[in-house]
Design brief:
CATH topology of chain A: Formate dehydrogenase/DMSO reductase fold
Oligomer: heterodimer
Distance between the termini of chain B: 41 Å
Number of helices of chain A: 13
Number of domains of chain A: 1
Structural class of chain A: mainly alpha
Order of helices and strands of chain A: HHHHHHHHHHHHH
CATH superfamily of chain A: Formate dehydrogenase/DMSO reductase domain
Strand content of chain A: under 5%
Helix content of chain B: 25-40%
Number of strands of chain B: 9
Shape of chain B: globular
Radius of gyration of chain A: 21 Å
CATH class of the largest domain in chain B: Alpha Beta
Distance between the termini of chain A: 14 Å
Structural class of chain B: alpha+beta
CATH architecture of chain A: Up-down Bundle
Largest sheet of chain A: none
Strand content of chain B: 5-15%
CATH class of chain A: Mainly Alpha
Number of helices of chain B: 11
CATH architecture of the largest domain in chain B: 2-Layer Sandwich
Radius of gyration of chain B: 19 Å
Shape of chain A: globular
Helix content of chain A: over 70%
Chain lengths: 383, 256
Amino acid sequence: MIEKALAGNRFYWSWITILLALVSLGVYSYSQQLTYGLTVTGMGRDISWGVYIAQFTFLVGVAASALMVVLPYYLHDYKEFGKIVIIGEFLAVSAATICLLFVIADMGHPSRVFYVLLYPHPKSMVFWDVQVLNGYLLINIVSGWTVLEAERKGVSPPTWVKPIIYLSIVWAVSIHTVTAFLYAGTPGRHLWLTAVLAPRFLASAFAVGPALLILISFILRKFADFDVGEKAIHKLTTIATYAGIANFFFVGAEFFTAFYSNIPGHKHSLEYLFFGLDGKYQLVPWMWFSMIVGIVSVMILLYQQRRPSKKLLIAACTGIVVSLWIDKGIGLIIGGFVPSPMEEVVEYFPTFIEITVTLGIWAIGLLILTALLKVAVAVKKAT
Amino acid sequence: MIQNRRKFLKKSAGLIAGAGVVSGFISKYATGFAKASTEKAASGKSIRWGMVIDMRKCIDGCVKCIEVCHVTHNVPEFDNPKDEIKWIWKSDYAKVFPSKDQQFVSEETRQKPFLSLCNHCADPPCVIVCPTGATFKRKDGIVEMDFHRCIGCRFCMSACPYGSRSFNWRDPRPAIENITPEYPTREKGVVEKCNFCSERLAKGQQPACVEECPENVLTFGNLYDKNTEIRKILKENPTITRKPELGTNPSVFYIT
């Protein structure tokens, strides 16, 4: 079945070439990082996690969001998702893969990565995160691929795959909950030390995932002549809308608790992110941009229920993805380190090497996604 | 009866601990209830090393303890603050004790240099988050690092509420002026921090900083032994610890 990814037009191969070029650049930069250490990144003693861990956090959400198509299709028998469900699963596979790559990119001693399994420490959330992410990756590859293969052969999928699919539903929630627990259990970081972090992670994931799926659907319609169906897109819009509303509700709740209680520690990180602290305000424009674009996009999505417009839908979905990428992929991680435990405000600037490694890993994810979708579309079209 | 209840609590915590994701939290709470970490009888351990820092005696500008520590442990010296590694250092009072920063206090008090180092917490958040056990609490209370086990994930740095941990962002060896052969140098990619001079304690010596201080600012001893100098000082003086509200139970006490 994989051979279907090797047949494409000139446009397909140019896209693959661009991605491979980015991967090569990333590999080169990573070799520099391996040689000289993480000093080549913008991270330091005070901001000890940067874009790598931030991308990881964002992408766990993308991976988890497959739930939003698998659940309606398999559990509620929502037939309209018949064509999109495999796209959701393959999106999860590529996102989960690069989540793991970002973790490895962030490690000071990547050659010791298997120590996590060799010396397991179940009290550490990292231990559980490694289990759930790898498990989720496996579950989605197996269930997605098996169902697709059955479809290609024109038979119904084997019965053993059903329980695995149901497991993936619960598992999707677990990956983002455990990821939130990585942060929500640290006593000194007020931005993370909040019970609403896991629900907020899930809400933002369930907004970003469907928004991405809508965008992918439009791309497939344009470049692969493959239509997932208007009803599916309409349903995804509804899901993204309400998940987006839930996300911004949680953000508002964070602001209320911090500023109404007036407890300095609770306020500091939010102050740094949105208003600047100690004369440092590097992220302020980013955060306001994220907030405004995000809320406007959710409002446009809500309006789609009454008057659908393809252009506005694409704009709003892009807005949601960009907004929540800034929120989770920049603000949440960097903001957690500011101010430092010694109340110092240190700023973080990712380096060229760090950015190219990040782009390289994203390119790997897009390569996997492109190949998998190529196979899926070819099979779907043939049947 | 109380002993039984304690056993029961511990056993049930142990059972639940196996149950999955929640294990970390439950057992942490269970030890909290039993107060195992702060009293000798409950913990069944006989040594818990601790330190009192009498800041009334500490001289402004004196850095002897810092120098001797960093030489003893081959701590590299980098110009770039991003790469900085420090085991013990001086910082403003208001930064070492951010939650005790008072209104109407003079700038002098707020900026008075205070010594800062690893607190060797009885309930260390850095240990609970470490995925490989590279950082662990010894039976004598010292929070120790195994440089050969550390994968460099820096989770401990996120979890430490005191900023006491440093990471080797680059190869530290070229930045060590004179290597002390008695203590290992590190390689890039691992975390390090104060170890209460566990290597010196093993030889019956006091920590280097304690020995070097000309003003006897630092007192080191066993917190579980009622007859030690450190317990006497703790009994006779009002002392504070850093961020006690976080429940980490530091073993480093300050007289301000």
